[in-house]
Amino acid sequence: MNDFILTLEDIGNRSVQNIETLFAQANGALGVRASLPIKAKESTPGIFLNAFYESHDIVYGENAYGYAKQHQTMVNLFDLRSIELSIDDVSEFLLVDQSVALDMKKGILKETYLYQTKEGKTIEYRLESFTSHFDRTVYAQKIDLKALNFSGEVEVSKKAQKISTKQGEDFDPRIKDASVELIQTGNKYTAPNSGLSFYTHFDSYDKKQYVEEGQTLSFTQLYQISREAEFTSPSYEELEAKQIAIFADFWAISDIEIDGDRHLQKGIRFNLYHLFNSAGRDGHSNFCAKGLTGEGYEGHYFWDTEMYLLPFFIYTQPEIAKSLLSYRVNILPKAQARAKELGFKGALFAWRTINGEETSAYYPAGTAQVHINADIAFAFELYEKVTGDTAFIDENCELIFETARFWLDYGFMSKRGFEIHEVTGPDEYTALVNNNYYTNKMAQNHLYYAARLAKKLKKYEKEAVEWFDSAEKMYIGFDQALQITQQDDSFLMKEPWDFEHTPKDRYPLLLHFHPMKIYKHQVLKQADTILAHMLFDTPIEQIARDFDFYEPLTTHDSSLSKAIYGVVASKLGRSELAYRFFKEAAIMDLEDFQGNASHGIHAANMGGSWLGLIYGFAGLSVENGEVTTKNHLPKEIKSLKFTVTIRGVKQQLVIDSYKK
Amino acid sequence: MNDFILTLEDIGNRSVQNIETLFAQANGALGVRASLPIKAKESTPGIFLNAFYESHDIVYGENAYGYAKQHQTMVNLFDLRSIELSIDDVSEFLLVDQSVALDMKKGILKETYLYQTKEGKTIEYRLESFTSHFDRTVYAQKIDLKALNFSGEVEVSKKAQKISTKQGEDFDPRIKDASVELIQTGNKYTAPNSGLSFYTHFDSYDKKQYVEEGQTLSFTQLYQISREAEFTSPSYEELEAKQIAIFADFWAISDIEIDGDRHLQKGIRFNLYHLFNSAGRDGHSNFCAKGLTGEGYEGHYFWDTEMYLLPFFIYTQPEIAKSLLSYRVNILPKAQARAKELGFKGALFAWRTINGEETSAYYPAGTAQVHINADIAFAFELYEKVTGDTAFIDENCELIFETARFWLDYGFMSKRGFEIHEVTGPDEYTALVNNNYYTNKMAQNHLYYAARLAKKLKKYEKEAVEWFDSAEKMYIGFDQALQITQQDDSFLMKEPWDFEHTPKDRYPLLLHFHPMKIYKHQVLKQADTILAHMLFDTPIEQIARDFDFYEPLTTHDSSLSKAIYGVVASKLGRSELAYRFFKEAAIMDLEDFQGNASHGIHAANMGGSWLGLIYGFAGLSVENGEVTTKNHLPKEIKSLKFTVTIRGVKQQLVIDSYKK
User: Fold this and answer.
1) ipTM of the complex
2) Contact state of B65 with A520 under an 8 Å Cβ cutoff
3) Which residues are substrate-binding (chains A, B) (predicted)?
């Protein structure tokens, strides 16, 4: 058994759409779902170009001032994998066998399909393919067709085809139709509303020939898609060699070796593989909530990038981290315009977006999550701390300042301190509350950071005093009687959710209960106060009390939840519990625990599984360029071996249960 | 000057659309806007049939469980007023003079238009018309056309025409397109989605003839529209005589005579006239927010009926009141289904609806206004108290019980008492809060009423104990330091709105600021705590403190606000202030103070102006069949004379400043 090879035996749900997601390939620009070579009803092929979207007006049942105006939907471009095949003019086939082997070490997918006619003529379809990390315009395929038990006329046609399917069901609010009628002019395609274009350079293959039993037809195809009109013409072999080399480099500095659990080992590599694949590299694209593997969440970028994905990149792939942060710098003007439109100073980043404009059509669980401003600042700070790349921060300091200004205007000073009202924290089962603990803590950290930065750069020194003062006086709610950190001003006053009488099939709650019913109860979708406890130093006894209070109220209906609870359980020394949470996060998509991996991977959770290992079991942190670890290994894991890059220096770390 | 005749001189805004609304006629079933006889671009003709709507799916930018599923939009049916005219084959005319006289005493509208060709040939178009209160299917017109300064060929064609215009602008969330393509089969018209039908019986007129200078062409037309297929064939003269008799009866028992201000006298009669005209009479229709005079709010029924309109009907037209309450009885099954869908026991009435199903597409200012349950119960209780019609209440007691059950499930018992969370009170500039004072007080009153009723009828006696107990323990928030009633748990903690830096053109705030910005501030759209103070006995010093606190925070952006502040100012003995509020309410549409009377009258405010006079200046109340009054007349009003019907007995009351 090779822990870098993922096969169908490794996955819990072998539905066609699930396979298409899990075995999808991507290179940060292009993403390709592993759809069936011969079209099938249940198949949902997909080729996505990161940041390529179509826009259309959002229709509201009842509109109001300042609502997001346009949807942005990542377009499903083509089907580049399907083949038209006939044997002696018979073109109906039964798929009698399928084997798939994703070689994560090399970044190459190897598939074999046996197709059979009614008469029993069987053809073997072998495909090796990859989205090139060397030339990010390329999806490369090498095809072998072998006549297993017949001789006859074989006709093969393989070319790019239009997409005509849609993932998901009408009701699910998390997925939208991504098929769009593009305007074609030669090899240029334009989305009519967004005006965005791309160019293609496609090989095609179309032949009819007599094939002897046992004979193999072989050919390669390169499909190129790019925002630029110019293409180079690389060879399959050259790209394949580069691909293997690039992946070798990747694993050398980003792998985590787990001794003790081979399924977990493969699970974590699967996660790192997808993280490396789907991250935008050009400063104008970012990391879609579902990577480049499916249509879920319309290819939008959320706070997931900063709070769940960037730690992995910052510690192991700082260049990618820098590119993802540059994206925020590039959309800062949109964030400034948004704050102004809403009547506030500074900048407010969009809750969900591709081009920087707010596209969340439900503000209580969208725009109201203003914590995104502080999340972004937090990631900039972490990047600086780990990489030592102070120049990047200094150059882009206006982002930190403008987002800090927003807090000063959105919040206000009262007798109780600096308060921030009418926000939604990470927990989307509680909305539009006052003084959400996570938000206030994050804003406080942000304001301190902005004040330090301004002082260092000798900029806005008068404002910096206000930022510091507001941070110092930040209101933090605490319930003296319960000795519990208040998630917000009203949370502890709410009616407890009746978990006892909520059958399992009523989860996730959001698909079965009206927001009013959910919001009025003590029930959490995901880590909220506990997420803040992962990030900040708080007396461990307090974290324990809060954990014991909030965890039983958490449904984990969000895929962003379990990994965080796992890290904090490690922090509390509850290794058994931490392992349980970690395991569910680490193999969430492999086992399809959320039930919707078919719509795309849960990228944030994949980043969360890295946090679970590195922040959790290894207890990693960095202060002043010094790495410290704490050994929180559960009994199931004998050792962890991984590399981090601190201020340009690669350090291999081993956490070993024998040395605990 | 006759205070029953309304002319163009009496109104503040003489735009075409404003005139169409103010001089509109209706009979509870049919409503007809006073549109121009010869079509003009700015004209928006309208014929509405109460409760006749088309439905279509509500599209949400982001959907969620339990959202309202369908729009219901009152249909603008025909243009029954326009005429096609030519003189010697010239059919372009200039409108050179228009006079309009609404005889409110008789319920008849008299109009005269002078139309002129380019050559100066002038024709006088005189129209007397009414929507019959005797035969509610009929819109009757008597037309005289006089050749003023020419002899020639006059061609006249007058028939029902399709509607092709839409009121209002795209952005305004308060108005939707009401023109619908109906399916016609003979004289039967069907709205394709709702499946509702109506029948027509239309006269038409089409003639070309030579007319001598000074000669008059006269004809009458009856247009009949009905949900039933059968029509009677009344004569114009017969219907006119009945109309005059019916209006004489109406004024005899519903008029208010004001001595001291003729403009106000006319204003209040104008309001009573429209109230009488637009109220549904058949138990299946109700009172649209804009009456039957325009497309605003899509012809929907709100809590306006119970809290603003029913007092007038209960005290002066109890049969109409009974019909409006019967509508709620008829849609109770829909309210039960809605509560169940949301996951609660009992019944929850729709915030806005025609057929009983929720059609509010923005739940924070829709479904969350659960106080509508208690508002309806309050109206039933008032009806019983004033009319003594206990049989009606006993027969329909399930409505009171089912809506009470909802409170027990939606609220919960905590250490603080019985709490009701996640509601929106009357003030729509504050949403999704806990323990809104108005809601809790109204729910308390409702639960007491339900408990008394159950005890009397010996039904649900065990539940009745719980209802009583929850009412007794109802949590009422009070700020000890400020000595102010808390509008809700968080209101007094919010940041004050910056009124000083809000220019006048930024009102109403809802059209210029995002809900998040509005909700997080201390700012009110309308009376909230103060509305509760109008309804319940509270120590007068407390009312005064609350009034002085909340009134300066109130924008009165809702037309439901000023009348209530006026009544409470009277209660406080602040007659001058009361008069100022009352006056703005009483002539709100005549002077177009809200700026959108063109979309239809503000019916609730019209009912509010009755409250201002009768609850406010006359201090009327009834206990145990006994009327009491308190003389709160302001100096501008010398006396008030009006009639109320208490337990079937008409009582004329005079409030006289000399006897103060």
Assistant:
1) 0.91
2) no
3) 303-304, 525-526
